[in-house]
What we know:
This protein is an alpha/beta fold. It has helices spanning 3-24, 42-47, 78-89, 103-109, 218-221, 226-235, 251-267, 269-300; strands at residues 50-53, 66-70, 93-97, 115-116, 121-122, 135-136, 138-139, 151-152, 159-160, 167-170, 176-177, 195-202, 205-210, 239-243.
Amino acid sequence: MGLRRFLFIVTAATVIALIITAWFFPSNDDFRVENPFWNGAGDLGTRYPVRPLNSLADLPPSGEGATLITIPYAGYTEAELERIGDFVTGGGRLILADDYGHGNEVLEALGLGARFSGEVLLDPLVNYRNEQFPRIIHLASDPLTANADNLVFNHATSLDGVGGGGVLARSSAFSFLDRDGSGTREENEPAGPLPVIARQAAGRGQVVLIADPSLFINAMESLGGNAVLMQNIAAGSTALYLDQSHLPASELHRTKDALKRTRDLLASLPGTAGLVLAALVIILVPVWHGKKIKSPERSRK
Length: 301
């Protein structure tokens, strides 16, 4: 076996091994239903009929009775904001779970005055493990929070401009917004109770603001009444969608997406025809090349 052929075989085998590994290794991206690890939403996808959306173009234009969960870690196009607006005003429910992302873009596009403050919420006394895991104990009597006695947040923020009537959950009186990052409350820093979940009407639908998307990851679902909150969201929905098109994507996720697109292309009629043609070329070219080499020998005989 020549060196060139040996290197080709080793390279091909390595590429095939990498493709197989990328295809079968589970996603480890935050909030994705394909991710079974602590930071994924695999439990959410297993327990409820959640349909993940890789594009908001797949969202039904009328959301009557349906719920869309979106975690806005990437910005939105005008077309996407219009799609969300049609969904909500048509009777859908938007669960907008944000802390330091692009949630305010959505609220502004919907014409709502509420905003995510984008400031770190700490609670040095009423918490799960430390001040960065505030335990939310002030819950309104509402179908969304029914049977939950408390919620546990993780590196959360708070809500501004939500008024009083639409607030469904507030942090404790010991909580505060750590504006200077010192970890202790200064005189100019807002103190609790601070709104962290609120409902706003929009057309025939509604927007539920949650100041911490971490509630939906596997590691947080079992804490406090977080699982009950998710049950209530699912129970009040005729269809449940999770927008994954605005989540951060790792190189593994991009590779898996590229492999899926390649598979879909090869499964189509033009793709299959191209694959057969490429296989014929690979098989026949060496044969044809061999005949070219041998033909002078036959001509000398």
